[in-house]
Design a protein that fits this description.
By secondary structure, this protein is of the alpha/beta class. The two termini are 19 Å apart. Helix 2 packs across helix 10 and helix 3 crosses helix 4. Strands 2-3-1-4-5 form a five-stranded parallel β-sheet, sandwiched between helices. It is built from ten helices and five strands. The protein has one domain: Rossmann fold. Adenosine monophosphate (AMP) binds next to helix 3 and helix 4. Its EC number is 2.7.4.3. This is Adenylate kinase. It is found in: Cytoplasm. Catalyzes the reversible transfer of the terminal phosphate group between ATP and AMP. Plays an important role in cellular energy homeostasis and in adenine nucleotide metabolism.
């Protein structure tokens, strides 16, 4: 029995999912802090590698800048390595992975082998115009190379065609909590904590 279970709570093995600009990165970091688990963002891993000019970074830069998806095999390997590290033994929060049905299968295979399935999926919803407004704001603040008009349009369309359908898979498992992503950071965060608490997933003391 793990420490989390011994305390009576379900382990936080979480996925946060939402369109670009939904605030999932920001909320993901807050959730990770509150629950004492690592936030694993594939987008952040790729961006850090591009910035440092690593072999991986050189491989994925053009793909990311164009707003396309990095191949599943490469992305899956990165996630498996990260989730195998000690700090993810008591739980984790995935942000940006899985992003299509193939990746759901890859993640299932990995987690099933460990007998540690996801315990909750937070679906952060914001209307499309709000999402575009937030990305435009981020583009001026952070200057991300993939926050240009063409790439944004492609990423939103990939979200709708490839990523949104994975929610159906998780809905069938009864683990999705739909959270309204419009509001202040605190308001949205409180909604997420309330949804997780209702599942018996409680913040670290
Ligand atoms: P994000 O910060 O999550 O929006 O990710 C930025 C970019 O990294 C995406 O547009 C993709 O090019 C790449 N990326 C991040 N996560 C994945 C993933 N799970 N599968 C494939 N590509 C990804």
């Amino acid at each position: 029995m793990t420490l989390g279970q011994a305390q009576g709570g379900a382990q936080p093995r979480l996925l946060i999912i939402g369109p670009q600009g939904s605030g999932k990165g920001t909320q993901g970091v807050r959730i990770a802090q509150a629950y004492g688990i690592p936030a694993v963002s594939t987008g952040d891993v790729f961006r850090a590698n591009v910035k440092d000019g690593t072999e991986l970074g050189l491989k994925v830069k053009a793909i990311i800048d164009a707003g396309d998806l990095v191949p599943d095999a490469l992305t899956g390997e990165i996630v498996r390595d990260r989730l195998s590290q000690d700090d993810a033994a008591q739980g984790f929060l995935l942000d940006g992975y899985p992003r299509n049905l193939g990746q759901v299968g890859d993640l299932d295979a990995f987690l099933d082998e460990r007998g540690e399935p996801l315990t909750a999926v937070i679906e952060l919803s914001v209307p499309r115009d709000e999402s575009i407004r937030r990305i435009a704001l981020r583009a001026t603040e952070q200057g991300r190379a993939d926050d240009n008009e063409e790439s944004i349009a492609k990423r939103l369309s990939i979200y709708e065609s490839e990523t949104a359908p994975i929610l159906d898979v998780y809905r069938e498992r009864g683990i999705v909590d739909a959270v309204d992503g419009v509001g202040t950071l605190d308001e949205v965060f409180e909604r997420i904590v309330a949804a997780l608490t209702a599942r018996g997933i409680t913040p670290a003391a």
